Amino acid sequence: MPLDSTELNFLIVGACCLFVLGIALSFLSRSQSGGSDELVKQVEKELPGAQCAQCGFPGCHAYAEALVNGKAACDKCTPGGIDTAAKLASLLGVTLSSHEQDDAIFLPRTVAVIHESTCTGCTKCAKHCPVDAISGAPRQAHQVDEQYCIGCNDCVKRCPVNCIELIRLEPTVANFNWDLNSIRFQRN
Q1: Which residue has better confidence, 113 or 51?
Q2: What's phi and psi for 40, nearest 5 deg?
Q3: SS3 content of the chain, % helix, strand, coil (to 5)
Q4: Which domains are seen in the chain, by residue range?
């Protein structure tokens, strides 16, 4: 059934109105957010990018948004440590109390441990480790290198047989992080 000219004109005018309305709403939403989108990007850039959710948010972007909106403290990023907390505080114009800084430095490290007796060697944990701290061949028990593990919990979430757990290391001279540098991931 062919369209007559009035129906065709109605469709064209309607489509043009919707297009203009979409553009107007897009500009309106950008102007209302102001510089907060840019600040969220800057804050997210300072985070390590592990997407580990140890801060209580589903990823670094969500944590950055919460920081900018004043809904989270700067010291929640475990992989980033005190260096990242200080950078975030300075970027947001807030100060870290000395108590928060001491807690961040002297918290015992959390690392993953694979129980080899129940590990099936599925390699799912190793594929999702953001710092490649898990080694092992397919169908053989895997191992975690405590030196590189950041305790992000990704491997625990991915393990289908629940053979991985996070443990807190007892702080000793041998396993204390003397370097205290932030963990950084390369971004493409």
Answers
A1: 113
A2: -60, -40
A3: 45, 5, 50
A4: 36-105 (1.10.15.40), 108-168 (3.30.70.20)
